[in-house]
Amino acid sequence: xxxxxxxxxxxxxxxxxxxxxxxxxxxxxxxxxxxxxxxxxxxxxxxxxxxxxxxxxxxxxxxxxxxxxxxxxxxxxxxxxxxxxxxxxxxxxxxxxxxxxxxxxxxxxxxxxxxxxxxxxxxxxxxxxxxxxxxxxxxxxxxxxxxxxxxxxxxxxxxxxxxxxxxxxxxxxxxxxxxxxxxxxxxxxxxxxxxxxxxxxxxxxxxxxxxxxxxxxxxxxxxxxxxxxxxxxxxxxxxxxxxxxxxxxxxxx
Length: 253
What we know:
Blueprint: E1 14-20, H1 27-35, E2 43-48, H2 55-60, E3 67-71, H3 78-88, E4 93-97, E5 102-103, H4 107-115, E6 120-127, H5 147-156, E7 166-169, H6 173-176, H7 187-197, E8 201-211, H8 226-252
Helix pairs in contact: 5-7, 5-8, 7-8
């Protein structure tokens, strides 16, 4: 799975990386919305995080050779599961995907256009069904080049970077991986920090996914306690320092 060229000799364009856990009710609809936008030589890498339900069976039941399923023998958490999926991906463009959303028509081409000139792209989202959108402001394309302001907004908690709405070029994989060992959540903010520190991230005004809110969501839905807020801010500062160091090391390489 680490070979960058499929057996037919054609380069893989898009790799969609999905981490699944207890996603049985939703994963089929999501995969169908993804596969409808991919070409014959793209791939979807699904790593199931030892789900106790029928998630893996649902994925196995989708008869499409573009879907590659890896079943973990132990639960590692969604950050490490996404990391494994990215490591296994082979495409020139890597899309992150949650298991329970629905991709909006035209998402792939819209994001590929942005990736032609940026390492990382982040899009907006709308809500699936009648659920209300979280209060956090929408991304604006006009802020794409305001990297210091974006980093400050990440630290404050008012920049809507969600992994399910993000993608990056293959060149950014060595920047993004390995995800620092102390990261137990917010791998999407780590990717956004990498893109902003590298000075190459595009914000899309458009919404490219319909997010679904339910009891199994991994993203916190409510307010956190003060100690958790402080711990999260310390982690973000560490990540910004780490991204600066990786940028310097890449320049030396």
